[in-house]
Automatic annotation (TrEMBL):
It is a multi-pass membrane protein. Pfam families: MFS_3 (PF05977). Keywords: Cell membrane, Membrane, Transmembrane, Transmembrane helix, Transport. This is MFS transporter. PANTHER family: ENTEROBACTIN EXPORTER ENTS (PTHR23513:SF9), INTEGRAL MEMBRANE EFFLUX PROTEIN-RELATED (PTHR23513). The chain crosses the membrane at residues 15-36, 48-68, 80-100, 112-141, 161-178, 184-200, 229-253, 265-288, 300-325, 374-401. It is found in: Cell membrane. The keyword Transport applies. It comes from the Bacteria. It comes from Winogradskyella immobilis. CDD domains: MFS_MefA_like.
Amino acid sequence: MAKNDPYAALRIKEFNIFLLVRFALVFGWSMQFVVIEWQVYALTKDPLSLGIIGLCEFLPAFFLAPFAGHIVDKKEKRNLFTLCIALFSLISFGLFWLTTSKVESSWETTTILYGIYGLVFFGGVLRAFFGPTIFSLIALLVPKRIYPNAATWSSSTWKGANVFGALCGGFLIAWIGVNSTLGIIFLLIMIALLLVFQIGKKPVLNKNSNESVKESLKAGLRFVFNDKVILGALTLDMIAVLFGGAVAIFAVFAKDILDAGPKGFGILNAALSSGSIITMLATTYIPITKNTGKKLLISVFGFGICMIIFGASKLMWLSVLALFFSGVFDGISMVVRQTILQLKTPDHMRGRVGAVNSMFVGSSNELGALESGIAARIFGAPLAVMLGGTATLIIVAIIGVKNKPLRELDLQQDIEAHEKEEINS
């Protein structure tokens, strides 16, 4: 295998199947997010309701994440992944049913809205398990020396699915309506459920069966908070999503500011992700493992600037351009963060570290949605986004000055160390 082979991870059959499963899941989840946001805003005409969606998913995802990490480290990963997908299919079917003409004509709007919130809450419970399960499973599919390549392809697949999912979600709402779009999403999840059985069962690497839940959770949190590089990388991404992100209120921009309609709503969502996937694919050919810390800081800083431009824009083309370049910077940040976590996390703690990652980053999407909804209601959507972008710039500058290990991080040394380990063994 060539040392700088950009397709190294893709030469492993089970990893390819994993990518297909992840694409189907994220494609469906991304479309579902777009459809739910559009449907809820259409029902309420209130940006705060979009924030409530974020809160419903944030609460269980955040508070159950440590426990989920403990479970993931103790259980076989393929079967746990399969169970999560099966339960996710129930959520998709429930949303499809809630938007049928029969339910809409016989149920009150408030009842339907609460039903959507309830299913989103259940989705938050699953999110607590999805993150650490996927993070742990990747490490069991590829050798350590190609973790950076696997992380890049996995992140690219995630972003690619977001691109097409968000774009298709917006267009399908306009073409076939909310209910039919949700029916397509349910079929996608069922396809993912069938594909996952092509991955074999994996060994459980955490053999410490006598460790209590409390001790297990403490060990995972202690590891993350004692490692300044991991803690700094997670904090940077969390801050960017929490304050700099504006995905939850794209419907407000599409409807009320840019007058772009559902198609424009899909384009705004896709613009952010399309920049990310292009950058991620480029990093398979041009690795970013040298001067990694500086590149991470610059990428998050650039993301904040782009979001300020988006918030100030009243032109569709400028808004799309700003979101595209914010996606470029976000793509660099995501690849770096995932590579850091994969290279620096011990095998027996991957579930717990993945859970902490979900708490920092995954849950910040939902909390960020709540923050965006509240800020948009108080300040108006444009000013809310500009203030969030400014807060991102300030915090990045503080972390860059205070966190020297992150600032001087160079992952190439870690990769070379893993290559020597495999040669010696």
